[in-house]
Each structure stands twice: as structure tokens, then as C-alpha cells.
Design a protein that fits this description.
single chain, STM4215-like, 7-stranded mixed beta sheet
């Protein structure tokens, strides 16, 4: 199984611009690739855990996968959505700039949709981006 969690995590945590916009957790930017989110995490945070879809991609090696994954941004609700929008826009730019490196190969970003507004706990705002990847094992 090809794991894109590390590739997304590495891309997002490698950005000082993004790190400046979100909280920290355990001395690192508050980006979580597993749920549940720790109860002591402070917002804003980014969450990307699990694939929405993962299917075989018809290619010459037969070792490709087309993966769709959601990336969520949550921030405390304020009078405007500018904070959560700025974070989501930064995530969008980081994910579509170049292929992601995965331990087993390369992940080409086929597209990033969003950000769109999503439900969030009371007192918070949420945005979601959907990332479509073509992952090729090497």
C-alpha cells in the first residue's frame, strides 16, 4: 500500500509560511495525519487522515494508484473567515506546486479542489481541499 500521509505532512511542515499561520503541537506545526486529534491541540490546525478513494491506475507497470485525499483546515471562529481562508490558500499553493515524494515512488498532483466551507465544531470554522494524486511505484 502506498502511503501519501508522510509526503503531504513533509510538504506542509516544510513551509515556514504555513508554520507561521498555524499552531504548534509537540514542537512541530499542528498538522495531523491521524485521528482522533489530541485533546490538548490548539487551533488553527490542519488534518489529513485517510484516503477518500484509492484505486488501481491503468499504467504500463500495473503499480500505480489514483488516490483522493481531503485536507481540512480548522481555525477559531472570528468576525471574518480571513484566517482559515489564508491557511487553506497556502495549503492549496503548497500542494499543487510540484510532485510529492513518497517512499515507494512519486506522487503527481492531478488537481486540488477547494477550499470549500465544511462543518466545524461550535466556535470554529472549517475549510476542505480535495487532492487527487497519481502515485507511481518505482
Amino acid at each position: 500500500m502506498i502511503d501519501v500521509s508522510r509526503a503531504i505532512f513533509d510538504r506542509l511542515t516544510g513551509s515556514p509560511d504555513l508554520a507561521a499561520l498555524i499552531s504548534t503541537y509537540a514542537s512541530a506545526p499542528a498538522i495531523f495525519t491521524a485521528t482522533p486529534i489530541p485533546a490538548d491541540a490548539t487551533y488553527p490546525i490542519i488534518v489529513s487522515s485517510g484516503n477518500v478513494s484509492d484505486s488501481s491506475s491503468d499504467n504500463k507497470t500495473g503499480r500505480g494508484r489514483e488516490i483522493t485525499r481531503d485536507v481540512f483546515v480548522y481555525a477559531e471562529e472570528v468576525s471574518s473567515a480571513s484566517s482559515v481562508e489564508e491557511i487553506a490558500g497556502t495549503v492549496l499553493n503548497l500542494l499543487r506546486v510540484a510532485p510529492l515524494t513518497v517512499p515507494e515512488g512519486i506522487a503527481i498532483v492531478l488537481g486540488v479542489n477547494g477550499p470549500i466551507e465544511v462543518d466545524a465544531p461550535d466556535g470554529f470554522q472549517g475549510r476542505a481541499l480535495t487532492v487527487r494524486l497519481l502515485v507511481e511505484e518505482v
